[in-house]
Amino acid sequence: MRLFAASLATETNTFSPIPTSEESYFTCFTARPGEHPDEPSLCTAPLWVARRRAQQEGFTLIEGSCFFAQPAGPTTKRAFETLRDEILGQLKAAMPVDGVLLGLHGAMVADGYDDCEGDLLERVRAIVGPSCVIGVELDPHCHLTLKRVGLADVIVLFKEYPHVDIVPRAEELLTLVLKTIRGEIKPTVSLYDCRQIAFYPTTSEPNTSFVTRMKALEGKDGVLSVSFGHGFPHADVPEMGSRMLVYTDNAKAAGDALATKLGQEIIALRGKTAPPNLDFLDALDQALATDTSKGPAIIAEPADNAGGGSASDNTMSLKELIRRDLKNVAVAPMWDPVAVTFCHAVGVGGRLRLRLGGKTSELSGDPVDADCEVLGIAKDCFQSFGDARAAVGDLAAVRIGGIDLIINSNRCQALGRELFTLAGLDPSKYDLLVLKSAQHFQAAYGPIASKVFYSETQGPSSQRYENHPYTRVQRPLYPMEHTEGRLLV
């Protein structure tokens, strides 16, 4: 038995001012055949898992290239076609194969391509033919388009947000692909469209219990896999939205009924899945009134979240903290490669005047000019993200009055505590942390927080989705309009 595995992934915010080029993939994550490290990354877990299980389970793995770019605006046409065609060329050279494993994101958009994953799958299917089994792992912030669902034999999504389960889901995907190749199961798909967009953090109810119920259904009564696609609301593409995906073992009617039932449960939770999205000033007032004896209050800043395609250089929150002359407060991370370079030049203990943030677009606000003390510096840094690591680039921590600011050279969101510890700081000792992230910070910072507040600042990843200037999304769609769900497949 021969399997081919590869990965091409990014999350595209079509409202982001930051273009995604070939260089975006090369500087973030690129591993060509044989170069993949002995650890998983966000979208390469299928390859990593297959590498570990190949000899034990009696199959040959042919590794293709893996590419990932930090979320931003659309990928250029040239970049997508070049990277796609490299993988397709490797697949052709590997033929014949019995199965294909693809680690994709699911919300990639390129110039001229609304559905990059669907386009890739169409070309893969043309090479391998109808009998080859194609398995795909996707991020739940994906677009579960009819095209990709029709072309793949099995699609498995991460269930958790933050995405701490990328490896377990890849293990499940590989198991289902191998069983399908061996004729032990016949995956049959059902897809239900909830006709809505929302925020579904699985660290809080009712989302936690819903994930538990999904897991409990799998492996019983012919149910092979249950996935909930949250959708990625920061993309203006036709099939954006929340969808329920069910695979049964050749039991179409039962799958349709289950996908419909679960999809309607999601619809019934409209308005209840997300914590309050406060104006930043309100969030700050409530955070400052919080008892922080057991840990810092945390304010999340999703609108300027690099993980959603934003620049992470908006200055609104920093300006307000400075205006109030707050003490024992920290902001992390702000993307400012120029300021990082200056901090590394003067070294720890150095003092200098920096122009911080406010560089990318009008959504970044105006720069902050401030006298700063360099508290810590580090080069070529990574932060933890579940079983994976995410590149931070060079790092610097500066103090402005009583406020500590973490700045870095590789645009990223707050994931692991290494943002602080690599600069010699302890995040648990602050009274307040303002983190540029939507939800992934919860895995590392949630356990030390006294309370978490979600706030609205400025940026192309706003959680007030109705404010996005959609022109291409299929309407009606909740919360912009009231509408019912529907079974698609």
TrEMBL record:
GO terms for biological process: proteolysis. Coiled coil: none annotated. GO terms for molecular function: metal ion binding; metallopeptidase activity. Keywords: Hydrolase, Metal-binding, Metalloprotease, Protease. Its cofactor is Zn(2+). Residues 2-288 form the Microcystin LR degradation protein MlrC N-terminal domain. Residues 299-472 form the Microcystin LR degradation protein MlrC C-terminal domain. InterPro entries: MlrC, MlrC_C, MlrC_N. Binds 1 zinc ion per subunit. It comes from the Bacteria. Involved in peptidolytic degradation of cyclic heptapeptide hepatotoxin microcystin (MC). Belongs to the peptidase M81 family. This is Microcystinase C.
